[in-house]
Task: structure prediction
Amino acid sequence: MQPDRLLSADDLAIGYASRSVGRDLNLELQAGEVFCLLGPNGCGKTTLFKTLLGLLPAQGGTVRLRGTDIAALSRAEIARTLAYVPQMQSSAFPFTAEEIVLMGRVIHRPAFASPSKEDRAIARHALERLGIGALAERDVTRLSGGQRQLVGIARALAQQAALIVMDEPTASLDFGNQARVLAEIRHLAAQGVGILLSTHDPDHAFALASRVALMKNGAIVAQGNVADVMQQERLEDIYNVPVCLANLPNGQKICAPDFAAMRPQR
Ligand code: ADP
Result:
């Protein structure tokens, strides 16, 4: 195994007891890279993530976390390497934002021990990094969906895991908060953290990704570096709409639907 390979899937088959969702899935994630998974609704991104996280058993093939079959690891062992930011952040209980972020520190202290001064400093710092330090004492059940999403990302930061898996981390965020979270993801990768994320926005892959995989009907139809994979025809194929790709003056690439080429649907 390469020493900096954090996560790998070999010939993975994914799905539920009642149905198969995908097969022959291969990918790997190295330290310090952002790997973006794109694909239309229902193609199997969440099912793949749950399987990669060890939350759903693989129907075939193997997921390895730092070279060890994830099926052989306990939840605590997985959490020492991997933090997960699910799509919907919800809490039935009125914890404060800081208490939620402190939950990311649980694996770093003995069972039943109270958070240390250091844990609290790390939690506060994670909230500050996402621009939500002012929400620390607020009851999360009274925050907006977007604010809760930022709290969930702060919890993953506080966990200080080598690998963070994020399922559409910017889905409920406004334009400014999306940019802040994307910038934070770039910063984390530059510090050596491996990031695997799904997104519905090709621009996020252009802005962030070291590598990208396009998924359709449970299969990875293309995988590799952004310039090779994020081609107009491929994006049109997976999303089934005409698109335009363009370069901004700063060199950043963007993607937009080509409305002029779209016929009204009847
Ligand atoms: P995506 O995240 O790409 O939108 P999902 O992984 O959520 O896609 O879903 C892939 C397929 O699996 C869909 O057809 C969906 O209906 C199905 N599916 C999702 N959850 C379950 C479940 N718990 N049991 C059976 N089928 C499911």
Residues 94-157 form one domain.
